[in-house]
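User: structure tokens for this one?
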Amino acid sequence: MIDTHCHLYLDQFENDIDAVLKRASEAGVSHIFLPAIDLNSLPKMDQFEYPDIAFHKMAGIHPTSINEGKGTNKDTLLELCSRDDFVAVGETGLDYYWSEDYKTEQQESLRMHCRVAKAVQKPIVLHNRDSTTDLLDVIEQEQDGRLSGVWHSFTGSVEEGKRALDLGLELGIGGIFTFRNANVDQAVAQLPIEHMILETDAPYLAPHPKRGKRNEPAFVTYTAERLAEVMDMSLQKVESVTDENALQLFGVN
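Assistant:
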């Protein structure tokens, strides 16, 4: 299995990272993708090494970091994302949950990330909270046939999911999908698994039955199991399809 979205470098893993990676390996996790929150995240990504697990870095500025006054310019982001050791641009996106005071700044940052992603021909990783219409509108305006990416932690409706797919995005399926009261599974069941990838967003949003605990890469198993139920597929098939989708999206062998 592949965890396509995990913040392993955060303080929540500082005291037991070796045990976390051991559990991930034992669960069958073979790749872990590391989205940035801001540029200070990047040096911390180089510390990870574990047998049979490949780690992949991204560079970007999270929308809530924009609210905090953090950011970067296009040239710096372009230089970073041009490097072979960065597989994607992000995470970026929009988040109106905590504040709507920075909508303009967040949208400007998102557009800049989109243009860098197109320039370096790498996928963009999109955070979305309470901002679906604006997010998809920006992607539609920036899509010229060169933009690929993923709506990370998909929580949309069937119609929103179809619009995202039409815009060239994949859907990241994570912990919220497993929550019994979220109804995300009902939308996911009506969308094609051929455009889905698995993720944890660890340490956040642990899936059922670990909800409320610190999330970690090994817990991607629970999301895969629930997706197998929803799609009426074997777990092996779900793993195979979502793994292939992830490797293809991020251009990883």
